Amino acid sequence: MYEARTADRNQLKSMRMSPTNPARLIRSVVNSLIAPLKINQSESNPLDRPESTASRVANKYTPTTAIAVVIANMIGTGVFTSIGYQIIDIKSSFAILMLWLVGGLAALCGALTYAELASRLPRSGGEYNFLSQLYHPSVGFVSGWVSFTVGFAAPTALAAMTFAAYLNSAMSHIIEINRTAAALILVVAITLIHGRNHSASGGLQNWFTVIKVLLIAVFVVTVTAAVSNPQPVSLLPVTGDGAVIASSAFAVSLIYVNYAYTGWNAATYITGEIENPDRSMPFVLIAGTSVVILLYLALNATFLYAVPMEMLEGKLEIGVIVAQHTFGETGALIMGGVLSLLLISTVSAMLMAGPRVLQVMGEDFRLFKMLAVSNAGGVPRTAIYTQGGLTVLFIVTSTFESVLVFSGFILGLSSLATVLGVFVLRFRKGADNGPDNTGYRTWLYPLPPLIYSAIMLWTLTFITINRPQEAIVAAIVITLGFVSYGLTERASTRSLS
User: Fold this and answer.
1) Which stretches of 172-276 are DSSP H helices?
2) Beta bridge pairs of residue 61
3) How far apart are CA 144 and CA 314, in angstroms?
4) Interval 101-106 mean pLDDT
5) What CATH number did the domain enclosing 476 receive?
6) What is the spatial distance between Cα 88 and Cα 312, in angstroms, rounded to a whole number?
7) How far apart are CA 242 and CA 277, in angstroms?
8) CA distances from 40 to 4, 34, 36, 107, 439 (A)
9) Nearest to 362 by CA among 133, 74, 12, 128
10) What local confidence, expressed as pLDDT, does residue 420 receive?
11) Number of domains the chain is built from
């Protein structure tokens, strides 16, 4: 009895948060930002539960860490680079902010829908898990294959190389940094940490997500306070804004905005490793997405407020331009360092979420069973190292650039099929799986999946019309995925015989 009590105390002690633990900071920020949000009136907020309780499951990520994964996955370089291209065709500040609001609305509707799927189909793997159960294992296989390569490894390599570029710009006056080496060191270090245990992995993710959110908040406040010649920013429509919002330029620009919002579904890839996923996942997805929407609107309003549009038009390094215009050359150097820090949590979140797709594919397909192997702490170390290795390969060869051209299109198709899957789930099983099921159901159903699907179809249609080569390549990749599924099934069957 004494040994059991001692073990329990030691376990609780190891889980207890110190006053400086980043999980507490994330929890307080999220609760203050979305206090009006109620996921289910009959259940308490998952983040308000005591962190140190005897019911805590060992070797699991907390809901706080899951929210950090969502936020870190979403906030990458997109919000700091894309507005310059939007301004080329859209000269209205109201229309620009509406772009980010519409993109955020689409992401939130997607999160509301994914929350039901994650609550009713609680398993890691994201779209792979959902599509396999809702349609056919071959559809899930194709989605998992695309997520592993296009969805995670290639963007992770891009984020790591962008980190190195910004770090070099900030340090070049002191020391010249080898960009490739810096990117490789970052990926290898984070891969090794995530391969250890949930505590080390979650701690890394929490800390750098806190740093990311705080740096963005400091940037918004200091720029707004220091700007000497503020530009007019209209929060209400003026004459001509309606035509701009209904134009093809708005739709094309929405493609880049949707890409910047990519990642709102990140927590669904680690569903099986989150505490009480049927209860916590809805709050995780909706809370994380809501926080990012607020941050994105604040950032873009700050960009437009601080610098004339003509200075931003067609430019890529928006954050650096705004910092230089406001604080001078020193500000630009500091901003380069800040952006490099922001990307650490992005790389970390992708290296945490992506391998779970490989893990569940290894559980389902005998040919890939090695990828399902976990260490004593339940961490899929083989899958993590595999994705880390592929990311390193992309960095060394730079072959990911051609893949990223069509990644937005093919990932959009995957998420669209998943969101539509909620109708399939409702048709097959109704609103409830059974009398004992009290999981989350999509708020305002069927509006969120319909709104998301309409926005995504609108965007994909314009991509097909204006960039047909990406649609053709995506169709080829999907076809090859189905062929690979057939070959994999045949090989697995032979290995059993």
Assistant:
1) 179-194, 198-226, 241-245, 248-261
2) 274
3) 35
4) 93
5) 1.20.1740.10
6) 9
7) 42
8) 36, 14, 12, 20, 9
9) 128
10) 95
11) 1
How many residues does this entry show for the chain?
497
Q: What is d(CA 252, CA 103) in angstroms, rounded to the nearest whole number?
A: 12
Structural domain containing residue 238: 60-431+439-492
Q: What is the mean pLDDT of residues 231-245?
A: 88
Helix (H) or strand (E) holding 496: helix 468-496
As given in the structure block, the two tokens for residue 157 are 């390599």
Establish if 32 belongs to a structural domain.
no
Structure token digits, residue 27: 């929890």
40 domain-assigned: no
Question: Residue 188: pLDDT band by 50, 70, 90 thresholds?
Answer: very high
What is the pLDDT confidence band of residue 24, given thresholds at 50, 70 and 90?
Answer: low
Q: What is the pLDDT of residues 467-480, one digit of tens each?
A: 788 788 888 888 88
- The verdict on residue 168 lying in a domain is yes
170 or 192, which is more confident: 192
The set of long-range contacts for 251-255, using a CB threshold of 8 Å and a minimum separation of 24, is: 251/458, 251/459, 251/462, 252/89, 252/462, 252/466, 253/85, 253/86, 253/89, 253/90, 253/99, 254/99, 254/102, 254/103, 254/455, 254/458, 254/459, 255/408, 255/459, 255/462, 255/463
Q: Which range has the worst mean pLDDT, 33-42, 101-110, 111-120, 433-442?
A: 33-42
Q: Whole-angstrom Cα distance, residue 211 to residue 218?
A: 10
